[in-house]
Amino acid sequence: MQNGPAVRRRKLGAELRTLRTGAGLTSGEAARLVGWHQSKVSRIETGASGVKPADVRLLLDAYGVVEGQLRELLLVLAGSEDTAGRHHWWHAYRGVLPPAYRDFISLESQASAMRTLETSVVPGLLQTPEYARAVTRAAVDGRDDEALDALVEVRLARQDVLRNDPPLELSAVLDEAVLRREVGGPGVMARQLVRLMEAARLPQVRLQVLPFAAGAHVGITGPFVIFSFPSTSDLDVVVIDQLTSSLYLERKEDLQAYTEAFDTLRIHALSPEDSLDYIAVIADGT
Description:
Layout lengths: L3 H19 L4 H8 L3 H9 L6 H10 L5 H11 L20 H12 L2 E6 L10 H11 L5 H14 L10 E7 H5 L5 H15 L4 E6 L13 E5 L8 E5 L4 E4 L2 H17 L3 H13 L2
Parallel strand pairs: 1-2, 2-3
Antiparallel strand pairs: 1-4, 4-5, 5-6
Pfam family, one: DUF5753
InterPro entries: Cro/C1-type_HTH, DUF5753, Lambda_DNA-bd_dom_sf
Protein name: Helix-turn-helix transcriptional regulator
């Protein structure tokens, strides 16, 4: 398990190495093309040192990489700039966002698909503003109203990934406790359940409920997220949130284990159609 920046450096380096070899270049030849020493290329490819977005652009140009989506993803892994060198939207919130949260958002912004198990709260991408405020207040108790407002704004801004073209494909398994836990009061929870039903009907969202009747399950140890990315599966990563940080799992065996766990959870969960009915029943009782 590693922190976000270390994982991003290694994944970026591995992908740059693949692109270099695909272009038929040795590390020495690549270094000469961009005016560097060979050791710098080697350090970048092994993840031993960070790399600036401007340097990534130089390498991508040298390797003849023109595919816009791949360039954007690799630049996000290098830092918080887009292909034109502008800061991404979350840069404006650096003063209130912990580094681990910024890393999470940067991955989420470029992922093509997200699989998540939630055991306590509604996924951030599906929260109403009222619910988001209640969850955020509980998580960061003691922050002033201005900081709280900023964190809620960030959570809502993240939801734009579901409206992008193409949108993020979200597959979520929700433990029944997510639906039963009264966050923000009865009115807030009632509106949140309605929002979930609306989201479940979106073509880019697959929502399944894991009812209490399913008993113990492979996800009982806690929630997790699996990000998948366009162009290459080698950048896929598992994220596990903890109270003060996030852990990133990148090894193939870890990815396989969590992918199999998620597939098992989907089998034991209600179908998307039955899940929608299940949420409606709970909503009627709130």
